[in-house]
From TrEMBL:
rRNA-binding found in the keyword field: no
Pfam family, one: Aminotran_1_2
The keyword Transferase is annotated on this UniProt entry: yes
Family: Belongs to the class-I pyridoxal-phosphate-dependent aminotransferase family.
Domain Aminotransferase class I/classII large: 57-400
Protein's UniProt name: Aminotransferase class I/classII large domain-containing protein
Complexes and interactors: Homodimer.
Biological processes per GO annotation: alpha-amino acid metabolic process
Annotated source species: Adlercreutzia caecimuris B7
UniProt xrefs under PANTHER family: AMINOTRANSFERASE, KYNURENINE_ALPHA-AMINOADIPATE AMINOTRANSFERASE, MITOCHONDRIAL
Length: 478
């Protein structure tokens, strides 16, 4: 007789409402599949830790344990806000970026992911409005969603979050709205988009924050990983009220769970209270290893190796996309970081296509994972170029292109048969007619403006302007 038995979950009605609404991380779910020998993973955001010099790592670890004094620190409870020595080192490192903070304006966290959770717990009540880029980092969506906010996602282009769309959203929210808490942004080599916010938009974001009374949370895990162009001044360097999040995971390794928050003392006081209830304190061992690595070892040399390697891998991916991907696809061209964003025709569904990609031996993260509604972005995907070798990246893109092409072939049949509403020759003609009509409207509006301006001039100019309006209206009628 079989000894197997069925276990029922009796906790279903005990689970908190906010947890029922939480979505699992698509990256975490893909982790097991990505470790298969026959699968090339473009889904994770893992750094190439194999580049770290063994002797440098050994020195930093030994410094944390080799003396009784060191062990008394590294193996003991520590202060909630982090070891004072590490906070001083982090303050020095931030000065390289143009950010002037003191050690007591920094709170060390167990990775930047914990920083997001602490900020969410300290500031978000159910129904509060949070602004993010759309798409945005899925770990931030997880951290925020646990506290049931109303997340408003603002689209970006190649220059970062679009300020015109942000302004329109803020007008709908209204000035002085107590529900509006903060704007979360990754201005450098955004995850998942790979885009960087330009200087003009950074200034405008800070102006809007002051005008509408919301905080700005600047997440900067990739800022030092620049491959092209010049340094962009951090938001925190432009305005001390910005809440800045940093991490050592991309400069050393994510296994040493060490991040930090740099913020005004009033903010850190609230976050400190929340952290006491979360974990009392972070790992003093991790913190002391990190302190010695960045204080005693020439870490900038290794960072330059990371930059050279990732640049090569990014260039390889971009070249492979140009070679293998269909003309219907488009993608971002990141100047740094670890990711780029691929957009397919809006009738494609990268969520359902993932099973076919796994069968072909490649993974990515479907685009809908990076939007708060879990639906938007289904025709997009995030791919990572930092971890796999150039040869594997080329092969992965070739495999992925094959999967996409198979789906597109089917859709092209539907389109040619007129079975896909909104596409085909008639749809293209209608779109062209709409664009022509838009041009006529714009021309007419411009000419009407000329009439209004000319009314202050002589009658001859008025007559000329009115003739232009009449011509535009005749063209529109045709």
């Amino acid at each position: 007789m079989s000894s197997a038995h069925i276990t029922f979950d009796t906790t279903g009605d005990k689970i908190a409402r906010r947890v029922r609404k939480m979505r699992p991380s698509a990256v975490r779910n893909l982790f097991a599949a990505a470790t298969r020998d026959d699968v090339i993973s473009l889904s994770g955001g893992m750094p190439a830790v194999s580049l770290l010099p063994e002797e440098d790592v050994r020195r930093a670890v030994l410094a944390a344990v080799e003396s009784p004094q060191a062990r008394a620190v590294s193996l003991q409870y520590g202060p909630t806000d982090g070891l004072a020595g590490l906070r001083a080192v982090l303050a020095d490192m931030m000065r390289d970026l143009g950010i002037r903070v003191k050690a007591d304006q920094i709170l060390v966290t167990s990775g930047a992911q914990q920083a997001l959770t602490l900020i969410a717990e300290a500031f978000i009540d159910p129904g509060d409005i949070i602004i993010t880029e759309g798409p945005t980092y899925l770990g931030a969506l997880q951290a925020f969603s646990a506290f049931e906010p109303d997340i408003r996602a603002i689209p970006f282009d190649e220059d970062g979050m679009r300020m015109d769309l942000l302004e329109a959203e803020l007008e709908r929210i209204g000035k002085g709205n107590p529900r509006l808490k903060f704007c979360y942004t990754i201005p450098n080599f955004q995850n998942p988009g790979g885009v960087t916010m330009n200087a003009e938009r950074r200034r405008r974001l800070l102006e809007l924050a002051d005008e509408y009374g919301f905080m700005v949370v600047e997440d900067d895990p990739y800022g030092r990983l620049r491959y092209d162009g010049g340094h962009q001044v951090p938001l925190k360097a432009m305005d001390d009220s910005v809440i800045y999040l940093g991490t050592i995971s991309k400069m050393l390794g994510p296994g040493l769970r060490t991040g930090w928050i740099a913020a005004p003392e009033s903010v850190l006081a609230r976050v400190n209270l929340v952290k006491q209830g979360a974990d009392l304190c972070g790992s003093a061992f991790d913190q002391l290893v990190v302190q010695h690595y960045f204080a005693d070892i020439p870490w900038q040399r290794t960072l330059q190796k990371f930059i050279a390697l990732y640049k090569e891998r990014r260039d390889t991916m971009l070249a492979a996309l140009d070679e293998f991907f269909p003309p219907e696809a488009s993608w971002t061209h990141p100047a740094g970081g670890m990711f780029l964003w691929i957009t397919l025709p809006d009738y494609m569904d990268t969520d359902s296509m993932l099973a076919e990609a796994l069968e072909a031996g490649v993974t990515y993260v479907p685009g809908n994972s990076f939007f708060p509604d879990g639906v938007t972005g289904k025709n997009s995907m995030r791919v990572n170029f930092s971890f796999e070798t150039p040869e594997s990246i080329t092969e992965a893109i070739r495999r992925l292109a094959g999967v996409i092409e198979e789906r597109l072939e089917l859709y092209r049949v539907f389109i040619n048969a007129g079975a896909l509403p909104g596409y085909g020759k008639e749809a293209v003609m209608a779109e062209n007619e709409r664009e022509n009509w838009d041009e006529v409207i714009v021309a007419s509006e411009q000419n009407e403006e000329a009439v209004m301006q000319s009314h202050d001039g002589d009658a001859a100019q008025i007559e000329i302007a009115e003739d232009k309006v009449a011509e535009a209206e005749e063209e529109a009628a045709e």
